[in-house]
Structures are given as structure tokens and as C-alpha cells.
């Protein structure tokens, strides 16, 4: 059933479940946060890509206001809830400064492909270790969802939006697997090259071949 949702377009992709900290300074979004506090409304963050508000976005809820500054600016904590599609966009909600839209919620199938999961996990391990980010892998929960790692895989904003458009976990797994199979060899070779460059000119303790 379509409903009206306040909008806060941003130049980034937010995923369901993701926690996002924002500094609020524009009067229209300070008004939006006040409405969230006073009435409990949620709001949508559609990515602003190529000078346009995207059709898809993520509904988020306000968790808390971390700090309010003397000039009215605020630091807030939010969390993504679910993906929606914009049907009608309004530059201003009735009687408000901020934008809004008639939206429909998108149903998501969270069932993962059990055969793809270990392959993705191994590729992620290799990627993080090649980049010296092993701690990220160690902190990864065994039952992680693709949304939880999507910002740490080297995706472009357009590729992250493609993930947002996927309506099942298995589809997101396929997108990530294809991406990792494409970039991992390049990343590993680049890191090896960087290491060779660092070692160039150093005294090397090498064992000559025995022939």
C-alpha cells in the first residue's frame, strides 16, 4: 500500500540494518529531525546520483540525537530499515521545508544461497588480508548478510545502488561473487607490486640455487 514518506536525499547509498551518523545543519532537515522526535516518523534516504534523486532508497529511523549545537545544528544516529521505491516525488511535503514522496515498500527475500556463502567468505578473507584489513574479517559474524560487507568491497556508488535494487539475498550474493572474482586478482597483484617496490634497493639475503 503506497504511503507518504519524508525524504533526505544524500550522495550515498544506505543499506537496511546499517547505522549511519549524520550532522544536520540545513534548516529543512533540522525541521525533519524535530518531526521525527515529536511524532516518531521515519524518513527515506534515496541516493542522489548524477544530479538526480534515485527511484530507490532506504527508509531509516532516528535512534537518538547525540548532540545539539547552540546554532541548532545536530549530530544524530540513524539506522536503515527497508528499501522503498518512489512513485511520486514532492519537492516539499505539505507545510514543510523538506521533500517527501509517495512510496511503496519492496519485499525482500532474505534466504541466502548456502553454496555461495563459503566462496564469498573465502574471497572476502583474501581481499581483506591483501589490503592489510584482517581485523575486518575477524570481526565478521558467521551469519553476516551482504548488506553488512557491501561498503567494504570496493564498489562504486552505482554498484552499491545495484545491490540496493536486488530483491533477494541470493541475488546480492551473485553480484558480490562476480565482483570479487573480478577485482581480487588485480588487488592481490597490486599489493605484490607495492611490496616489490618497497623492497627494491634493500640488501637481500637470498639463497642461490644449488646446481
UniProtKB/TrEMBL annotation:
Residues 2-184 form the Lon N-terminal domain. SUPFAM superfamilies: PUA domain-like. It comes from the Bacteria. Pfam families: LON_substr_bdg. InterPro entries: Lon_prtase_N, Lon_prtase_N_sf, PUA-like_sf. This is Peptidase. It comes from Hymenobacter crusticola.
Amino acid at each position: 500500500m503506497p504511503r507518504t514518506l519524508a525524504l533526505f536525499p544524500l550522495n550515498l547509498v544506505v543499506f537496511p540494518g546499517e547505522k549511519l551518523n549524520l550532522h544536520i545543519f540545513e534548516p529543512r532537515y533540522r525541521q525533519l529531525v524535530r518531526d521525527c522526535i515529536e511524532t516518531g516518523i521515519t524518513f527515506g534516504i534515496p541516493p542522489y546520483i548524477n544530479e538526480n534523486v534515485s527511484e530507490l532508497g532506504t527508509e531509516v529511523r532516528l535512534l537518538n540525537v547525540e548532540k545539539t549545537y547552540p546554532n541548532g545544528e545536530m549530530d544524530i544516529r540513524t539506522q536503515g530499515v527497508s528499501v522503498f521505491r518512489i512513485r511520486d516525488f514532492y519537492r516539499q511535503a505539505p507545510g514543510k521545508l523538506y521533500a517527501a514522496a509517495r512510496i511503496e515498500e519492496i519485499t525482500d527475500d532474505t534466504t541466502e544461497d548456502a553454496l555461495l556463502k563459503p566462496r564469498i567468505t573465502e574471497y572476502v578473507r583474501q581481499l581483506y588480508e591483501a589490503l592489510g584489513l584482517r581485523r575486518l574479517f575477524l570481526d565478521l559474524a558467521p551469519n553476516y548478510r551482504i548488506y553488512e560487507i557491501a561498503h567494504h568491497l570496493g564498489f562504486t556508488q552505482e554498484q552499491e545502488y545495484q545491490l540496493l535494487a536486488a530483491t533477494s539475498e541470493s541475488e546480492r550474493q551473485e553480484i558480490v561473487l562476480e565482483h570479487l572474482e573480478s577485482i581480487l586478482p588485480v588487488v592481490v597483484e597490486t599489493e605484490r607490486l607495492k611490496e616489490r617496490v618497497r623492497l627494491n634497493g634493500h640488501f637481500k639475503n637470498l639463497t642461490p640455487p644449488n646446481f
